[in-house]
Amino acid sequence: PNCVYTEPECASVGMSEQQARDAGYAVKVGTFPFRNLGKAMAINERDGFVKVVADEKYGEILGMHIIGPHATDLIHEGVVSIQLENTVEELMRTIHAHPTLAEAMGQANEDVRGLAIDKG
């Protein structure tokens, strides 16, 4: 993973949307803003988002990008997902505790398929 310890933190793993397209993938992207999470509201850290880049046909996660609170900690879900060739559907079925910042990971994956709730 690439981690930048700034304010806000930035982290990424895998391909960007453009890199995936250049590699020949048909790409679907999902995003979810931290501002809609109860935990982000509670800690007054509402800026930022999670972005998931996935293969449109099979749903394989090709990249994950995070800007916001604890991005350098949260990126590891993306690291493992890419290493194991997980799909967005597999992460959609993964329970993310509430209220946590990690809920944004699940919601971004759901957004790839147009199923995110509370996106605002």
TrEMBL record:
Alphabetical keyword list: FAD, Flavoprotein, NAD, Oxidoreductase
Enzyme Commission number: 1.8.1.4
Keyword NAD: yes
InterPro entries with a match to the protein in the record: Class-I_Pyr_Nuc-Dis_Oxidored (IPR050151), FAD/NAD-linked_Rdtase_dimer_sf (IPR016156), Pyr_nucl-diS_OxRdtase_dimer (IPR004099)
Superkingdom of the organism of origin: Bacteria
Residues that span the membrane, as ranges: none
Record-level GO BP terms: 2-oxoglutarate metabolic process
Enzymatic class: oxidoreductase
GO molecular function terms listed in the Swiss-Prot or TrEMBL record: dihydrolipoyl dehydrogenase (NADH) activity; flavin adenine dinucleotide binding
Cofactor(s) annotated in UniProt: FAD
Pfam families per UniProt: Pyr_redox_dim
All copies of domain Pyridine nucleotide-disulphide oxidoreductase dimerisation, residue ranges: 1-108
PANTHER family, per the entry: DIHYDROLIPOYL DEHYDROGENASE, DISULFIDE OXIDOREDUCTASE
Family in the record: Belongs to the class-I pyridine nucleotide-disulfide oxidoreductase family.
Listed name of the protein: Dihydrolipoamide dehydrogenase
Species whose genome carries this gene: uncultured Armatimonadetes bacterium
